[in-house]
Design brief:
single chain, 374 residues, alpha/beta, Rossmann fold, Arc Repressor Mutant, subunit A, 3 domains, six-stranded mixed beta sheet, 16 helices, 49% helix, globular
Amino acid sequence: MPAARRIFVLLDFTVTHGREVFHGISAYARAHGPWELVLGGIDALKAAAWPGSKPIHGLVAHVATEATAHLIKRSGIPAVNVSNLLTGLPIPQVVSDDRAVGRLVAEYFLDRGWRQFAFAGRPSHGYSSLRQAGFLERLTEAVGTTAPAVVDSAPRSLRRFFRRVQPPVAVMACNDPCARIVIETCGRMKLDIPGDVAVVGVDNDEILCEGFEPRLSSVALSTRIIGFRAAQLLGTMLRGDPPEAVGPIVVPPQGVITRASSDKLAVDDVQVAAAIRYITDHLTERPDVARVAEALAVSRRGLERRFKKTLGRTPGSEFRRIQIARAKFLLAGTDLSMAQTAAASGFSSAKQLSETFSRETGTAPSDYRNQFRH
C-alpha cells in the first residue's frame, strides 16, 4: 500500500461552510486515498513549511488574505482555493457559482410577487460582487420591477436606506451574517419581517438560520460537492496530470431554503395568494384549478382572471412552476428515486416528471441531479 499523502486543510470550522467543505474533502480522501488530513490555521501552515517538518504534499484552503495567498505560492505546495473572497489569485479554485446564486434569489423573489428589491453586500468581497451582479442581472431582465438598490451591509448604511425606501422591499444579503444584520436593523426600526422587508441570505448556516428569530431563509450551497471536487482537483495535480478546466471550477447552488424571514407572498390579491398557498400545501394531491377554486369558494373563471391580472400567468402555469421548484430542490438535495421525487412534487409518474421537467428547464431530471453529485 502506498504511503499516505499529507494534505493540509486550512478552513474556517466555526461556520457551516467550512465544515461542509471538509466533509467533501474527507469523502474524497476515503475513496481515493490514502490521504492523511492535517487541520490547522495559518500559523500551523507556516510551521509545516519549516525545514525538518514532516512534508506536506498538498493543500486545500479558504484563502482569505493576500498574505495567505503569497505564503501558499512561496511554499510551492500544490494547492486549491475554495473561497471566492479574493478573485484573480494565481491558485486553482473550486467555488460556488456566485453569479448563479444571485440569479436564483432574484427568481425566488420574482416568483413570490415582489416588485421592489435591494442587495445588501460587502463591496470589497469578490463573492459579494458576483452575487450582486447575478441578482441585478436577473432583475433587469424582469418586466415591471423597479431598479434594485445596492447598499452596504453596515448598519449605518442600512438605516439610511430603510429611512428613504417605502416598504415592502425584498432584500438579498450577500451571506447569512449580513442577512442577520439586515434583520437586526429592521427590528430596531420597527420594520416587520417579512411583511415590510423579506430577507434571504446565503450559506444556510445552521446557527445563523435556525438559532435566532425570525428564522432566516437562505441559499443552500453545494459545499460538500465543492470540497469533493477541490480534493479531486488536488489529486489530479499531485499525479502530475493537467487539470480539465481552465479558470475557476464553479458548482451550482442547491436552492433557497424558505424560513420565516421571507415566507410571504407579495401579492396584493388575497385570493391569488390563498390559491398559491393552497397549491403549495396540497401539491402531492395534484389539485386542478376547479378544486382550488372550490376550496376558496370562488369561480374558476374568476380565479383565472385574477391570476392573469396579478401574476401574468394562469393557475396551471403557477402549479407547474411550484412543481418544478419542488423537484429541483429534491433532485439537488436528496437521494429519492425519480418515482419518489415525482410523487413528492405532484407528478403522476416519473415519466411525467421527466417530460415536464425537460420541457420547462431544457434539462433532464437525471442531468440536473448529476450537477450536485461527486
